[in-house]
Specification:
Helix 2 (36-43) runs parallel beside helix 3. It is built from seven helices and 15 strands. It is 30% helix and 32% strand. The chain is elongated, with a radius of gyration of 21 Å. The chain folds into two domains: 2-123, Rossmann fold (3-Layer(aba) Sandwich), CATH 3.40.50.2300; 141-247, OB fold (Dihydrolipoamide Acetyltransferase, E2P) (Beta Barrel), CATH 2.40.50. This is Response regulator transcription factor.
């Protein structure tokens, strides 16, 4: 899933990009550009799921950019981000899903993401009859990853998944962390989520999967932020806001 942020102010563009990375785990790549022209060019080449766009920009405004995107056949979601509320009607005329006022808070952005997720879910239809479902279930139950081929230097190590404490995404690689050391693989966190048992591995952050049985404790700071400590591992891993529910007391 590709998302695009369009804003002529670099700091605001970076801030929104960072918040989206922290709050929206399903996104694979967030593209940030500074003008409507760049947005139109990229959308013509790449399948963009959602565009978060400032309205008042030099050259093409956000509203003008949205019109051109729709005219070119863009079917993705539009979310306008602006310091001015007088453009709301014009924004919704371009089938905007939401309208965020600057400065955008994490709470308001998370509400917008949830709305986008609900819309995506309602557009997906599964048409499996009982027999098809019965055929698929055995495969699904037995398909979780058992071994990982990971590298350390020039050596390939075959690691049993049950011994892995966590996976951490870093640049083009993912680090496999065990009590014996760290290794590298090329699979993304999203790929691993599809292959691992979701009851055994929890995604606590956009870039981190942890094995539940390896969690030693979860700590909360004065601001309410959570970090996970793993058995035999020195590093503490942050829990994103959207995943704090995993550790809610019952």
């Amino acid at each position: 899933m590709q998302v695009m942020v369009v804003d002529d102010e670099p700091l605001l563009r970076f801030h929104l990009q960072k918040m989206l990375q922290d709050l929206w785990q399903d996104v694979d790549h967030i593209i940030a550009v500074g003008s409507g022209v760049e947005a139109i060019n990229i959308a013509s080449e790449i399948d963009i799921h959602t565009v978060f766009m400032d309205i008042k920009m030099p050259g093409l405004s956000g509203i003008e950019t949205a019109k051109k995107l729709r005219e070119s056949g863009f079917q993705g979601n539009l979310v306008f981000v602006t310091a001015y509320d007088e453009h709301a009607i014009a924004a919704f005329e371009q089938e905007a899903l939401d309208y965020l006022l600057k400065p955008v808070t994490e709470k308001r952005l998370y509400e917008c993401i949830q709305r986008l997720q609900r819309r995506s879910q309602t557009t997906v239809k599964y048409e499996l009859d009982a027999q098809q479902l019965h055929q698929l279930l055995p495969h699904t139950l037995n398909s979780s990853l058992q071994w990982v081929n990971a590298s350390r230097g020039d050596t390939i190590h075959v690691i049993q998944v049950s011994k892995i404490s966590c996976f951490i995404a870093e640049d083009k690689y993912t680090t496999v962390v065990t009590e014996e050391g760290e290794y590298l693989i090329k699979k993304s966190i999203k790929q691993l989520m599809d292959e691992l048992n979701s009851n055994e591995f929890w995604r606590i952050h956009r870039s981190a999967l942890v094995q539940v049985s390896h969690i030693q404790c979860v700590n909360k700071d004065d601001s309410g932020n959570l970090t996970v400590s793993l058995k035999g591992i020195q590093k503490a891993l942050p829990v994103s806001r959207s995943n704090m529910h995993l550790f809610k007391q019952m």
